[in-house]
Write a structure and sequence with these properties.
Radius of gyration: 30 Å
GO molecular function, one term: methyltransferase activity
Pfam family, one: zf-MYND
Domain MYND-type: 285-324
Protein name: MYND-type domain-containing protein
Helix content: 40-55%
Number of strands: 17
GO biological process, one term: methylation
Strand content: 5-15%
Length: 680
């Protein structure tokens, strides 16, 4: 869903100083000042106006300390050593990881870190997690690891490579081990025995006539799917089956340019910006959102962790280089994930990028209404997303600008502007006004365009039916943001890391809207409540088919009727009538006359389909229970196609099948096995 009640109903949570500060600001500003604010027509003027109010500077923004602790790190390392000696490798790995997070890390002092990471690689080797061991070993040799100990790590590397059948690389690693033994400070007999063991391995490998590395098996989520059909010529994250249109009533929206079938992949898009919730910072990568197996630390703080050296390096070179000293302030302020995303848009690109964009933004840069490619890494696609500034009240602008000022002051403390603070806290340089206005602009557009990024948490592997979706953080996807809402959506979304995959969950005819869902679905929520929610949060009146026709919720669907599609055709081939024929389930008639086209529809075929699909549904569910999710998805897709060809929704069997398809697709994205906690 789009970020709604969890993150964007309000700019702050129920805890943190920002909520209190908003209240103080509301109480202190006069009606005259609020009226003056309402007359301002640009974000630059709004930001400058509110920034001059003394009350917005009442709190202090400070950089926070790192949390690194050499003593604690040493104690945790010793705990790991004891667990390792006792053969408790899982416990040892956890202690070493905690130690790694605590070790002070400076460029000229990485020996202790290198030794602890090397120790952890040994636990991964014994746990048969060879790829993780190799990842640690690569890091070890980029640090100041003692040369006299390198033979142990190289030997471990060789044996890991051997285990994953990388024979050519294993041979080279054993040769390096033999060379490294020259530096080893070992008793003569022990060194000689180690050398003999390595020589035996070299001899065995040399006997292979063809010494090669086998192709490595990539994890299921390591490769992104491709869109169905071809990549769109302009909207590079979308399928060529997607068309983007625009009109006065509906704004920008997606329609099918081809016949879209259930299961078609319509969008595969990396997030322009994504921010992990603070509560998951200890369990998920702060950069890519993947669940941590081997955590890699920030070199300055203990608040966040990364799943790999690659994610660590990219984050430390971009957003976390700015956010590290201010992250504690941002989290403790109670600012929502939307606010953190507004700042991250800036921190991940740096000041120069946006200053270089300033003239382009002022001249106008609507990529949708141009012939240019619409790329998810292009800031112009973000800048022009709808923010509904014309519908906002002066109070909304006041509080939103107050939040932008908090984010701005955090950036100043973090050194984002690469300049000394001005003599007066309330004096702004032109570049600062520009950045402050961008923050305010981001807060507006993110309210209506950000999406929740989630993970499927299972109690047992492949146990999909009892899995629950967990909110990990927020992301902005510029192409997906162009899709409009329906209470009966045509697509569902899942995530691989911070990349969204949108797939069709019903057949969509050429020219029909491809709708996603902003939260309320007709099967679960009454129409009045759905429409009130959408009007309040997204500023539009929903005119989708379930709202216009007041479709019943799932539990209220009438089991005493069947909704047959009229089979009236033109020339016996093309269906010409779109009428739905309502037939009681206890009817004794098999030929039903359509009131619109006056042709007869034989419902015997429909009854036979219902009978067949019931057995097929049980088979698909059995496949799901056995963990054969892709086979189950194929079967559910076949069922939905049959049902859709005969009957028209809403009816229970259709929506049960559609929900099963959603569950299958969600299992292809972020997921983890989390044991259910036993409550006493």
């Amino acid at each position: 869903m789009k970020l709604d009640s969890l993150a964007e109903k309000k700019l702050d949570t129920d805890c943190g100083f920002l909520k209190c500060h908003h209240s103080n600001l509301r109480n202190s500003i006069s009606d005259e000042k609020l009226q003056e604010l309402s007359t301002l027509q640009s974000d630059e003027k709004r930001f400058s106006f509110v920034y001059k109010l003394p009350v917005v500077h009442e709190y202090e923004v400070k950089a926070s300390s790192s949390g690194k602790n050499e003593t604690e790190a040493g104690q945790l390392k010793e705990e790991g050593n004891k667990a390792f000696q006792n053969g408790n490798y899982q416990s040892a790995m956890q202690s070493y990881t905690k130690s790694i997070m605590k070790i002070p890390w400076a460029k000229d002092s990485t020996r202790e870190l290198a030794i602890t990471v090397a120790n952890r690689s040994a636990t991964f080797y014994h746990l048969q997690k060879y790829q993780l061991a190799l990842q640690d070993i690569d890091l070890v040799f980029s640090l100041d690891y003692p040369p006299e100990l390198s033979y142990k790590v190289l030997d471990r590397k060789a044996r890991c490579l051997l285990a994953i059948k990388q024979l050519k690389d294993a041979l080279e690693a054993f040769r390096c081990t033999l060379t490294a033994l020259d530096l080893a400070k070992l008793p003569v007999e022990r060194k000689r025995k180690w050398e003999m063991d390595v020589q035996i391995m070299l001899t065995m490998l040399a006997k292979n006539k063809v010494l090669a590395n086998e192709p490595r098996t990539l994890p299921e989520d390591a490769t992104l799917p491709s869109v169905t059909w071809q990549q769109h010529s302009r909207y590079v994250s979308a399928s060529s089956a997607v068309k983007i249109e625009e009109n006065k009533d509906m704004g920008r929206f997606a329609v099918a340019g081809k016949e879209v079938k259930v299961g078609d992949t319509l969008v595969v898009e990396s997030a322009f910006v994504a921010v992990l919730l603070a509560e998951h910072a200890g369990t998920h990568c702060f950069h890519c959102f993947r669940r941590l197996e081997a955590a890699y630390p920030c070199n300055q703080c203990t608040r966040v962790a990364f799943c790999s050296v690659a994610c660590q390096s990219e984050a430390l070179a971009t957003h976390h280089a700015v956010e590290c000293p201010i992250l504690e302030t941002l989290w403790s302020s109670g600012a929502s994930i939307i606010c953190l995303m507004a700042l991250r848009i800036l921190s991940q690109r740096g000041l120069k990028y946006f200053l270089d964009m300033r003239d382009i933004l002022k001249k106008g840069c609507d990529v949708v209404n141009s012939s240019q490619k619409y790329h998810p890494t292009d800031y112009r696609t973000v800048y022009n997303l709808v923010g509904h500034s014309g519908m906002r009240t002066a109070l909304d602008f006041l509080l939103r600008t107050d939040t932008a000022i908090l984010l701005f002051r955090c950036l100043k403390v973090a050194g984002f502007f690469n300049m000394h603070p001005s003599e007066s806290e309330q004096e702004l340089m032109p570049d600062e006004v520009f950045v402050g206005a961008l923050l305010l602009h981001h807060l507006q557009l993110l309210q209506f365009n950000a999406h929740e990024i989630s993970e499927l948490q299972l109690e047992k592997p492949n146990k999909i039916d009892s899995a629950r979706s967990v909110f990990l953080g927020g992301g902005l996807f510029p192409t997906l943001a162009l899709f409009n809402h329906s209470c009966d959506p045509g697509i569902t979304r899942y995530f691989q890391g911070t990349t969204v995959i949108a797939r069709a969950i019903k057949n969509i005819h050429c020219g029909e809207m491809i709708a996603e869902n902003y939260g309320p679905i007709f099967t679960q929520t009454p129409r009045a409540e759905r429409q009130a929610t959408l009007k309040s949060q997204y500023k539009f009146d929903c005119l989708c088919v379930p709202c216009n026709e007041d479709w019943p919720m799932f539990n209220n669907m009438n089991q005493g009727i069947m909704r047959f599609r009229c089979t009236g055709t033109e020339d016996g081939k093309i269906r010409k009538c779109n009428n739905v024929i309502i037939v009681p389930t206890d009817t004794s008639d098999f030929m039903i006359r359509c009131a619109v086209c006056k042709e007869n529809t034989n419902i015997l075929r429909g009854l036979k389909v219902l009978q067949d699909t019931d057995a097929m549904f049980h088979k698909a569910t059995q496949l799901m229970d056995e963990g054969k999710v892709r086979q189950a998805l194929d079967k559910y897709t076949e069922i939905l196609g049959l049902l859709d060809s005969i009957l028209a929704p809403p009816f229970k069997d259709f929506h049960l099948c559609q929900q099963a398809i959603r569950h299958c697709m969600l299992s292809f994205g972020n997921k983890s096995v989390v044991s259910k906690k036993v409550t006493k």
